[in-house]
Structures are given as structure tokens and as C-alpha cells.
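Q: What does the assembled structure look like for these inputs?
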Amino acid sequence: MRASLRHGDRVIGYLDTGVCGGSPSKGTLVLLHAFPLAADMWQPQLAAVPPGWRIIAPDLRGFGRSSPGSQTGPPSMDDYAEDVVVLLDHLALERAVIGGLSMGGYAAFAVLRSAPARVAALVLADTRAEADDETAKLGRDAMADTLARGGAAAVFERMAPNLLGTSTQASRPDVVETVRTLVLAQPVDGIRGAIHRLKSRRDSSGLLAAIACPTLVIVGKEDRITGVEVAQAMHRRIPGSQCAVIDRAGHLSNLEQPEAFNEALTAFLTTLSAGSRQ
Ligand code: MLT
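A:
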């Protein structure tokens, strides 16, 4: 179901499956979306919730049904982390599995940094721990120019060749269309704020060796934005983590190969619920 909460001058919209088939609840998974998409990118996961689990997918600030609100300081990845904690408080959830894809992964790292006690486990999909280097920062400036000149449609055109894998681009026009529709629906303000947050995000590499919660790293084999080597290097630095490489998927692995993505996710969640309630 779609739901929302009001926090100060902002609305946070989110998708919530409730607890699916089985009781008591085994745990809650919060899924954080990529740039420049919204919670709806997680529809294939929301449609296949493992029994006893609840999945919540918020629209990050300025995307989907979440308003940007009035920004007091410079936009930061910590804004997204704050909203995740506000949502957990609202739903009276002490802890949850926090998962994010790409920008959502950067936000998951920000939650881990600001509220580690709320993180029962991590799912890091098609994402990296490193901050932007100088070249990437120049790319953000160019993206901001593209947005200013052509809006969300121009951003999609610029990103499309890298957002989706070659297999999807060649044989899944439906997935390309889903992504295009989702990107074009995003407000320019939200995209602009996200570009600032991506560019200014902190380096999380220093956190990796100290991650003590169960962690699953997922990456599409054809991901040209993150890259399999980057994901595998991150996995090797996180003690006890697992890594799943998804065939015939690019950067948006959850949308491109939902069955394989869901299989990896469910296997991971099952190991958690076999241990203890999250
Ligand atoms: C994303 O998919 O969220 C973005 O590609 C992340 C990035 O550009 O660093």
C-alpha cells in the first residue's frame, strides 16, 4: 500500500507491504532507491516478499511522493538517512534490514554512520563505498547542466546507456520503458538536490572493515556504473559478507533480473530469520 507521514514541513511517502504470509514477523526490510528514480523501482521486490517479512520502500526526499521540504543547510546524504530514521520511528521499528541500490546504498551507509543501532543487516546493491573523485564531481556538474537545460528527460537520455545492461537494452524494451517513465516522473528539484548529495557524499570506505552486521553485496554482471570488481572488492572488505553477481543485469539489477535478485535477497533474509528476529 502507499502511505505517507508528515514530519515538520515535509511529507515522506513510502510503499509498505505489511507483514506477508506468516506470523510473527521475521523482520522488516527497508529498500532505498537509486538516482533518479523512486520507491516504485522496487515493485518486483514488493511483489515477492518472503513469508513473515515486511518491505518498506520510501521515496527519498524530493522524489516520488516525498516533498523536498525547506532545506536549512546544504543538501547532504545525511538528509536521506534522517528520513529513514524518522520513518522507522513512525512505524515503531527499533531495527530493520537496510538495503539500497546505488544512491540508495550511499544512503544506507549514511544510516549506518548516524544510527548503527537501527541497522540489523545491510543489502548493498550496485553501489560503492567511495566518495566521488574529481572526475566524478565534474560529471555531477555536467549532469546538473543537463537537468537545467532539458529536465528529467535529458537526464534519462544521458544516463540510459549506463543505467541498464546491454542484455536488457537489447531484449527488454519493457524494462527500458519502465525506467524511462519512472525517471520522467521525478521532479526537477528532487533530482537537483540528489545531484548535490551525490557529489558531496562522504567516503564510507573506512566503515567497511568495522561492519558487524550480516551484509549482502549484489551487483549486475553488466553494471557499467559500479562494476563487478568494485562490488567484489567492497565485499572482501566487509567481514563475513556475501556477494551475488547477477547475470544479464546491469546497474538496475533488481529491475533487470528480478527473479535472480529476489532469489539472492530471499536466501539472505532466510539466513537472518534462521538466526534471530530482526
Ligand atoms: C544511481 O544509480 O543511484 C546513480 O547512478 C549513483 C551515482 O551516480 O553515483
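The chain has a mean pLDDT of 94.
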